[in-house]
Amino acid sequence: MRPTFSPIERPPGLQVQDPIENAQFELYTDSVVDPVRASDDAADDRFALPVDSAVRFEAESIELPMLLNVSVWTQDGTYVGQSANQEVDSYPRRAYALDLHVGPMKLQVAADAPLQIRRAENTTFLEFEAPTPVLLGARSLHESPAGTITIGDDVTDGMRAVSLFGSALKTTSPERSFPTLRGHPPLVERGDGFDAPDHLVAADTDVAIEIHRDWGDLYQVSALAYYLGAEVRPGPERALVLDGDRHVLGTDRSFGDEVRALLEHVFLLDCVVRTEGLYPVDLHERAVLEPDLDVDLAAAYEASLAERLETYLDVPYEVTEPHVPKWKLTADIAPEAKRIESLPFVVNDLARIRIHDPDAEPPDVEEEPEAVTSFLRGGQRSVHRSQSEVDFDTTGVVKPPSTDAIEHVWLADGFPLGASKGAAEYYRRRFEYETPDRDAIRIDIVCNDPEMTEEEVVEEFYGARDFFEFDIEVHYGLSTDELGDLLRTEVDFLHYIGHVEEGGFLCEDGLFDARRLESTGVRAFLLNACRSYIQGQALVDRGSRGGIVTLTDISNDPAVRIGRALARLLNNGFSLLSGLSVARNVTIFGNQYITIGDGSVQLVQSNRGTLTSAKLGGASTGYDITMQAYPTNSKSIGTLFSPHLTSQTTYYLNSGEIGPFTVEETELIEFLDKTFIPILQENRLSWSDEVRRELLD
Length: 697
Description:
By secondary structure, the chain is of the alpha/beta class. The model is unreliable at about 365-395 (pLDDT under 50).
């Protein structure tokens, strides 16, 4: 399951395929190449960073059809610098190793020759003075847990398991703030007692966290313990212990709030301090923090982990809190022993973990006002229906406390309004999923109501990507047998447009209930119908990885707008969760859509780096652009991001708002021409190509 390389002739170049992530990327050369597999030893000697597989060929130039920042190293691992944005950089003859992040995989290029890196429009060029032997390596960013820990019902078994989460860290230096240097924590399953594979060895950090013998305490400290490589153990009071020195937790704020603030504080300072090490880049967060930091950053970088944390604790939270990046994930979790099996997956995202109070009074779930529900996606086919005709049981729908994180997952009973319904069995499918034996990504669109044909426009948004091939089929008016057969078929993505009633999907000859299925071959789905969560739950219970469903009645106009937006977002690499977070902007009723299952599922991998949207507004001179960055499984929080604006060479952390940047119209048009992202403008969601055309008209 290593990346593979195949020559292409028109235009000449190579196609790199990652069978694990179902991703592929093409690069082009000045002439047809004949790649020869390189040995692992040769790759280790020539590349500065690890690769999974590599090939040799000869080329005078390499063309990468996207704008890339290129990290340049000598082949002995010495960092030379980075070629970024619109720069043209020339390097004298030397043995170089170049690091290229092309979305779902890392590429390394090694060559011993004079080198120029330049960009034109949406392309990055690596150019040599003459035909040169080149080594090209690829590394998949797919991460799998290194083993499974078994625990009994005693919470101390859970503490021992979480203490081993740090075994996945690839370093305890500040560079662990890079997601590629944080491995996935081992899985946890419940059994008769504690048992862990011998190769899972706790990190040697002299850091411990002491808590009460309580599942809620354990869950709240789990992400912090993983990131610090800390031992978790029972103690007389909740405390962080650094090389024997105790720091009591939860004195000025609640215990949970203190733990979350401490994790974000340490993470941000690590991102700043790591600029003293292997990646000495111009980081925005360092620039805004440094005037208020009374810290020797170089000394902090060289210190032991315990000593570095002591230094960090001397910095008031008030200094870092305004600059913490928008957090990727908040997880609400019930303090029950069975929930520990979900813990490694949310900890892998460094989630803010909150404890759900199952005894709290459930809040009311707001419906759309009757005045706007003139065309609902449930019940009878009549365009004008009374509310009583379409109601069915909403028991179990809950409204979690709000969060300012980009994503929100619910690990408790009930169906959460505005969040993702998660469970361990859904997350495990990330590692059980087998790539289908076919070249194309299969998408099936089902329109089971002739009055909803306006939404057929979603078909045009699939298959528009340059580097992915799609097999798209549209079905109208399916019978119960036909829909059942489709749900049993291997499908990468199902977009259902129509009605759902209490008893199932409304078909030409009656209702089909997905709960009748033994299994489903549908990998991911959007059920764009009223109260589709029961049918969505049935699909994930029977094998789907995840999908998007509704919790209440949805009128037709918001449903059409949400459907169109999601189709294009998912087609361009957004996950179910991040895509929904953007699509909700098209209607005030967007929070009635939730993800169920594993919300990190991506229909396709992005062929660019960090996924972004942008807000565009007027300024006194030109326009203001504010970027919104969305971490994914392959580009999680801590990744570097640089907006492709001519005036910008600074790097930012890849989560939340970045900017605003004031640009003139010519620079804005140039920016829109070399990127393809959703644009929020005056409460309207459009795309960069559309906005560019409007500016040029």
